[in-house]
Amino acid sequence: MADMPQDLLEQTKKLEDLFTVDGETLKKITNHFVSELEKGLSVGGGNIPMNPTWVMSFPTGYETGTYLALDMGGTNLRVCEIELPDEKGEFDIIQSKYRMPEELKTGSSDELWGYIADCLQQFIEYHHEDEKLSTLHLGFTFSYPATQDYIDHGVLQRWTKGFDVAGVEGKDVVPMFEAELKKRGLPIKVTALINDTTGTLIASAYTDDQMKIGCIFGTGCNAAYMETCGAVPKLAHMNLPPDMPIAINCEYGSFDNEHLVLPRTQYDIIIDRDSPRPGQQSFEKMIAGLYLGEIFRLVLVNLHENRDVCIFEGQDISKLKKPYSLDASFLSLIEEDPFENLSETADLFSHKLSLTLSKPELELCRRLAELIGTRAARLSSCGVAAICKKKDIKSCHVGADGSVFNKYPHFKARGAQALSEILDWDPKSRKDPIDIRAAEDGSGVGAALIAALTLERVKKGNLAGIRDAAGMS
Q1: Four-CA torsion 464, 467, 470, 473, nearest 10 degrees
Q2: What is the tens place of the pLDDT at every residue in 273-287?
Q3: Of 208, 220, 217, nearest to 281 (Cα)?
Q4: Catalytic site residue 158?
Q5: pLDDT single digits (tens) 94-115
Q6: Residues 383-395: tens digit of each pLDDT
Q7: Which of 71, 152, 172, 196 is catalytic?
Q8: Cβ(283)–Cβ(253) under 8 Å?
Q9: Angle (nearest 5°) at CA 203 between 239 and 150
Q10: pLDDT band at 1, cuts 50/70/90?
Q11: Which of 158, 184, 347, 350 is catalytic?
């Protein structure tokens, strides 16, 4: 950056000061995070929902049987059949994807559940033609905010991901779906309704018994971990054994909605202000893939409009002015540019935004991408560190999934560095005590495993959080 003009050099320094989060700040955020997790488990509740999932144990790795899994995403519907053989931690999977038609997302409830039931029918007819089937138990990954008093039911709080189907919010989705299955004569029982993060925790623990936390770092962010019932005051009325495990789906994207500890910049404040739900999901808006490109774009627009800075001079920045026109993959490509002259970054700006950048401008953009990506990775570690501190976990594996974790360059290494600063690891240690690694398939294998664990509980007579135990025995 030696040959960078003074104005761009000064702005780069300002951006470094703005987006860098030091170890002491991370510790402060993590300590507040621990108290917010505890508040979420209390009777009064808090910003972080801390939803009990009614998954009451980790898998042993010796679960057996054949199960269906259904993953209802925003663009696709995935149907899986998962066979759990006798070998520990093994599974066989066959799966099919079906497109989720756009018109269904704003159609009627009957059309939505009818279409999903049709997809399941096609899958069964294709893979089990002319077979006489006994009841197939289904794990349903329904990753929309839902209240669950039982594992086999879920009341939709609100639609997300572009869905707005009338007559579903505030209602239990399981009977609606099962009614459509019954109409088609399909011998399928919804045994467990789960969130993808809980599925990630259980699927990862099935193949690796050191897994203690499941995380998603993608379009959104979330984590799930295993708590004990005695540490969940809001379940005290159920008189469950205090040492009985229960998986908690944190939904911690809403951490620090009061803005007490997160180091928000003017750009984070704009993103929140202009979002569909201002004041909500504060943590998520600083670290999730959906927002990283937008933070980058806002900074560049602001620099262009700053009279003291010469950037993109004399060029039309109308494409850059379009909100959410850049996503996290744009930043990934900039960070992955292997060339000294940043020629791939130059091509990217030219093709996507019709802008021609000088070498100093390219260097500023590269540094900005690094700063935003690093801040996201470092802040994301606060949630993992908070769970470890709350549960006094000194070493474990954490199963992580999501596009940012899997595809964003250096995300894992930057997150590990932050964990070591928050938890004061010995710098001479050869391996990380808390190791965040790629998760198993949570929405498929995880959902099937949770169905298997639920049936196992019914057999043992542990019916806490199961509504229709008779239909499962």
Answers
A1: -60
A2: 998 889 989 999 999
A3: 220
A4: yes
A5: 999 999 998 999 999 999 999 9
A6: 999 999 999 999 9
A7: 196
A8: yes
A9: 30
A10: low
A11: 158
Query: Residue written as tokens 């003017």?
Result: 266
Predicted confidence (pLDDT) per residue in 320-374, tens digit: 999 999 999 999 999 999 999 999 999 999 999 999 999 999 999 999 999 999 9
Taking the CA atoms of 333, 330, 72 and 452 in sequence, report the sign of the dihedral they define.
Answer: positive
How far apart are the C-alpha atoms of 27 and 197, rounded to whole Å?
A: 25
Q: To 10 degrees, the CA torsion angle through 374, 378, 381, 383?
A: -110
* pTM for the whole structure: 0.94
Mean pLDDT of the chain: 94
Place of tokens 């996290």: 328
Residue 242: partners with Cβ closer than 8 Å, 6 or more residues away: 228, 229, 230, 231
Which residues, 6 or more positions from 44, have their beta carbon under 8 angstroms from its beta carbon? Answer: none
What token pair was written down for 151?
């594992």
pLDDT at position 160, please? 80
In tens, the pLDDT along 26-70 reads 999 999 999 999 999 999 999 999 999 999 999 999 999 999 999
Structure-token pair, residue 35? 């108290």
Tokens standing for 323?
């909100």
* Catalytic, out of 71, 143, 256, 401: 143
Share of the chain above pLDDT 70, in %: 100
| Residue 231 dihedral angles phi and psi, to the nearest 5° | -95, 10
What residues have CB less than 8 Å from 442, skipping those under 6 apart?
Answer: 141, 196, 197, 198, 199, 200, 201, 202, 203, 204, 214, 399, 401
